[in-house]
Amino acid sequence: MASNMTSRRTFLQTVLVSGTAVVTGAAFGGIGQAFAGDVQGWPKEPFSQHALAAAMTDCIGTTKVPVTSKITLRAPTIAQNGGSVPITVSVDHPMTPDDYIQTVYLFVDHNPDPLAAEFHFTPANGQAYVESRIKMKKTDHVRVIAQTNKGVLMASKPKVVKVTIGGCGG
Q1: What is the end-to-end Cα distance of the chain in Å, rounded?
Q2: How confident is the model over 102-126, as a mean pLDDT?
Q3: Where is average pLDDT lowest: 24-28, 46-50, 87-91, 124-128?
Q4: Which residue, of 19, 20, 34, 153, is most buried by count of CB atoms within 10 Å of its CB?
Q5: pLDDT tens-digit readout, 62-78
Q6: Other C-beta atoms lying within 10 Å of the C-beta of residue 36
């Protein structure tokens, strides 16, 4: 009887370990693919650029953008952790079907990948407003660029955020 219980226990352990390995492998394989940019429709090119000018050109077609006071960027002067820097962006612009903010881009000048975030809007949003967290490798400028459906681009004055603990692999 004891031998029979041992073999059942061994059998169940083997099945559970094997099943867990198969499920874990499938799950992490899928996640790995998603983060590698293999998901259909994921814009992997702008997020893989290593130079601010190249990232801006990929996103908006230029690096020359007029500065406006219509964009408000709130970020801490000192971020305790570069891995999670809170930011708030609001854009004072109409959100009508004929004239609205279509995309808001956040760039961090010297991050390994300068495009930190990209947010899309429609007139149904009513306002171009975002609260999020971004990663910053070191003390740097954070830039916000808003693109309208008509192609007019606006940028806020870059804000310097001092990072005390590295976030992007630092």
Answers
A1: 58
A2: 95
A3: 24-28
A4: 153
A5: 888 999 999 999 999 99
A6: 10
Length of the chain: 170
Phi, psi of 35 (to 5 degrees): -75, -20
Buried (b) or exposed (e) across 110-147, using 16+ Cβ within 10 A?
Answer: ebebbbbbebebeeeeeebebeeebbbbbebebbbbbb
Asked whether the beta carbons of 69 and 126 are under 8 A apart, the reply is no
What is the distance between the alpha carbons of residues 92 and 94, in angstroms, rounded to a whole number? 7
pLDDT at 10 over 50: yes
Domain ranges of the chain: 1-42, 44-163
Residues 42-55: pLDDT tens digits? 566 665 556 888 99
